[in-house]
Amino acid sequence: MTEAVLAVNAGSSSLKFGLYPRQGAALWTGQIEGLEAAGEAAFSAALQRLLHDCTQRGARLLAVAHRIVHGGEAFIAPCRLDAAALQRLRALAPLAPLHQPHNLDGVAAFLQALPQLPQVGCFDTAFHATLPAVERALPTDRALAAQGLRRYGFHGLSYQYLAQTLPQHSARAGGRVLLAHLGNGASLCALRGGRSVATTMGFSALEGLMMGTRSGSLDPGVLLHLLRQGWSADALEDLLYRRSGLKGVSGLSADMRTLRASTEPAAAEAIALFTHRCLREAGALAAVLGGLDAIAFTGGIGEHDAALRAELAAGLAHLGVRLDPSTNSAARGDRVAAIHAADSAVELWVVPTDEGRVAAQAAFSLLDA
Ligand SMILES: Nc1ncnc2c1ncn2[C@@H]1O[C@H](COP(=O)(O)OP(=O)(O)O)[C@@H](O)[C@H]1O
Ligand SMILES: CC(=O)OP(=O)(O)O
Ligand SMILES: [Mg+2]
Q1: What span, in angstroms and rounded, lies between the C-alpha atoms of 159 and 307?
Q2: pTM, two decimal places
Q3: Which positions are annotated as active-site residues?
Q4: How far apart are alpha carbons 103 and 93 in whole angstroms?
Q5: Do 222 and 228 touch, CB atoms closer than 8 A?
Q6: Angle of helix 220-228 relative to helix 233-242, nearest 10 degrees?
Q7: 3-class SS at 357?
Q8: Residue closest by Cα to atom 20 of ligand 1
Q9: Which of 43, 118, 122, 156 supports an S-S bond with 127, CB 3.0-4.6 Å?
Q10: Does any ligand 1 atom lie closer than 6 A to the CB of residue 208?
Q11: Which residue in 36, 208, 67, 244 sits closest to 135, CA to CA?
């Protein structure tokens, strides 16, 4: 039987998984939906079925690798998870309320249902452990830094996948590279020598770009204003994480496809704001890098939305960015594709991400060590 690792990305209502052999693509990927209403017994039954299916597919499961959004100061490399680690990670839940509780509920369910199997945690924040001090610091009272108030960065599994994939396609991958992970959550990462040197998400997964339902950066004065009007912390959290972004601005949907298909002016406004924010932050990271050698797009929007890629490329024309319209519109997100014109000073790539592959590979390394 093929040795395999099950990579799990437990979200608020679904559990996405992939069964990975040591090398190459997933043997099997899938999604279990409707978990929020299902209860613990149903979850445990679903996991037992999953385990049974793995065996049916000729795979011997060695471990389960979990994507965990926040690793805080302490978890900067993949590690085996037990009840004590889980408890420490629970303390970070307020910093990533859309993700961390569900990620950890997923781990707890697997620990209970499959106690014989190693559970491995892989942290979105870990890829950004290389951020320099000026990227990590918050420009406020330095006493707050002692409480762990600093910038971390997220989407690390996705960025690691791109950082390891791009060199197979581009001789520029070791240079000044801008990675754009544009999905439900969205962020940018600046790479130099394949390492993260700047990123748009910070202390929480709220900073930076406008997202599906999250605001991204906004003037902290807005929060003070709302607090003085009597808004509670919970109400602010709901606004910033769930009722902002594409959904909040359009009043229609968080889904880029729905907005592209809509004739409502508010849908166009939401897309324009999303695009503007991307361009603004891309310009900032290009300045940090001192110019660009390559840009790579990933995530549901980055991989599929040719119009957005074209607008960003047009906005960065002053840096010598030239898109090739035909390869751009032909890129489907099913393979790595170059989309720059022959005379572009900056290479442009679409790289379909595979966070599960990165998590599985970390689990194999840990088991082999
Ligand atoms: N063909 C497409 N054109 C434009 N946007 C798309 C397309 N396919 C998916 N998307 C967008 O990608 C986003 C979801 O990205 P994804 O990376 O799958 O999210 P997550 O993994 O964070 O749930 C949604 O806004 C969706 O509309
Ligand atoms: C960190 C984050 O925003 O993740 P996602 O894009 O999966 O929501
Ligand atoms: Mg995602």
Answers
A1: 22
A2: 0.95
A3: 124
A4: 10
A5: no
A6: 140
A7: helix
A8: 184
A9: 156
A10: no
A11: 208
